[in-house]
């Protein structure tokens, strides 16, 4: 049997270059090598935003459009919506039973999420039972397709560790080596920072979206931080102290381009504004095909919905095979 990957993203709306470089680009390559399942984790969105669901359906579509435009091919990968595969919720119940409470309590990613939540909503804000169950639900997503591998960003690796523990424990309790212990697959692309040098994120307003127009992209790039010690164009620059712009060059430029930028900057022959104008043009060129595809799907939302519905049906067929064996193992009617 071909090895299988499962991965998902929460529907946070339109995705940014961090999502593209950190995760999607990797999926696009892996889909040719593995049997691939990619889903929009709308239940996971509820773990923190259960009271802000007005845009949820649109956000699911936006994420799917970004995937399709980026090259996730619905002919070879299964693209689906988590909540359209209700078997995941059933598996979540069974997995919850075999998971000791302290395994979820010590999950570092969950601790971080709780910290962020408290900083937004005040010290006394309560973590919901649903949020506590985040790693178990995520394990259900992965084990629902009995995945062998999970391509994720580094921040998700702790969750995958718990999934491996839960899979092992389930197999022990029900005395069959049924579930795989899935391995994370990390990508090797360097992490892209936001325009202000911090982690790129929607809520920090320092991101460039896949869906941004060329004008917006060019404008945003002009705000990217450079070498703070440099005041005039003719000052000698320090590319290694350039906080954002030079880093972007190393991500998007060819080796020759990067060498040229470094050399001109160090000699004081390249001003930061000019440098960023060129950088904006380069990024726009890189994304022009993806953005064109994106515009196509935006104009054909019904096609996107069909892809999600078809994919969800296919995912469900797989899920039903797994869940019926699980029910048998546990001795359910
Ligand atoms: N927790 C992941 C994130 O925030 C999303 C996710 C949910 C996921 N279920 C998953 C990723 C299963 C991989 C596999 O990015």
Automatic annotation (TrEMBL):
- Record SUPFAM superfamilies: Nucleotidylyl transferase
Q: Which BP terms from GO are recorded?
A: tryptophanyl-tRNA aminoacylation
Catalysed reaction(s) here are:
tRNA(Trp) + L-tryptophan + ATP = L-tryptophyl-tRNA(Trp) + AMP + diphosphate + H(+)
Organism source for this protein?
Candidatus Scatousia excrementigallinarum
Gene Ontology, cellular component aspect: cytosol
- Protein family: Belongs to the class-I aminoacyl-tRNA synthetase family.
Q: Which UniProt keywords apply?
A: Aminoacyl-tRNA synthetase, ATP-binding, Ligase, Nucleotide-binding, Protein biosynthesis
Q: Which InterPro entries did the record assign? A: aa-tRNA-synth_I_CS, aa-tRNA-synth_Ic, Rossmann-like_a/b/a_fold, Trp-tRNA-ligase, Trp-tRNA_synthetase
Q: Which NCBIfam families does its entry note? A: trpS
Q: What is the lineage of its organism?
A: Bacteria, Candidatus Scatousia
E.C. code: 6.1.1.2
What is an example of a GO molecular function annotated in this UniProt entry? ATP binding
Q: Does the keyword Membrane apply?
A: no
Protein's UniProt name: Tryptophan--tRNA ligase
């Amino acid at each position: 049997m071909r090895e299988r990957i499962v991965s998902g993203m929460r529907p946070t709306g339109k995705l940014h270059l961090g999502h593209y470089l950190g995760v999607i680009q990797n999926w696009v390559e892996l889909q040719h090598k593995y049997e691939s399942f990619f889903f929009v984790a709308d239940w996971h969105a509820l773990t923190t935003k259960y009271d802000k669901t007005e845009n949820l359906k649109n956000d699911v579509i936006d994420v799917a459009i970004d995937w399709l435009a980026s090259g996730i091919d619905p002919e070879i990968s299964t693209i689906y919506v988590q909540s359209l595969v209700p078997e995941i919720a059933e598996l979540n119940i069974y997995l919850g039973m075999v998971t000791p409470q302290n395994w979820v309590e010590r999950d570092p990613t969950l601790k971080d999420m709780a910290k962020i939540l408290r900083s937004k909503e005040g010290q006394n804000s309560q973590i919901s039972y649903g949020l506590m169950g985040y790693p178990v639900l995520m394990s259900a997503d992965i084990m629902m397709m009995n995945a062998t591998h999970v391509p994720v960003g580094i921040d998700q690796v702790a969750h995958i560790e718990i999934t491996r523990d839960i899979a092992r424990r389930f197999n022990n309790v029900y005395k069959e080596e049924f579930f795989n212990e899935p391995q994370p697959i990390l990508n090797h692309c360097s992490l892209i920072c936001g325009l202000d040098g911090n982690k790129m994120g929607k809520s920090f307003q320092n991101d460039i979206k896949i869906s941004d127009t060329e004008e917006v992209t060019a404008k945003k790039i002009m705000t990217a931080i450079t070498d703070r010690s440099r005041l005039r164009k003719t000052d000698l620059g320090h590319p290694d102290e350039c906080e954002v712009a030079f880093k972007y060059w190393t991500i998007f430029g060819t080796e020759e381009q990067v060498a040229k930028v470094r050399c001109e900057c160090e000699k004081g022959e390249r001003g930061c504004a000019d440098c960023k104008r060129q950088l904006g043009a380069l990024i726009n060129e890189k994304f022009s095909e993806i953005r064109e595809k994106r515009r196509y799907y935006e104009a054909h939302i019904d096609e996107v919905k069909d892809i999600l519905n078809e994919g969800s049906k296919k995912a469900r067929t797989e899920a039903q095979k797994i869940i019926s064996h699980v029910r048998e193992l546990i001795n359910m009617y």
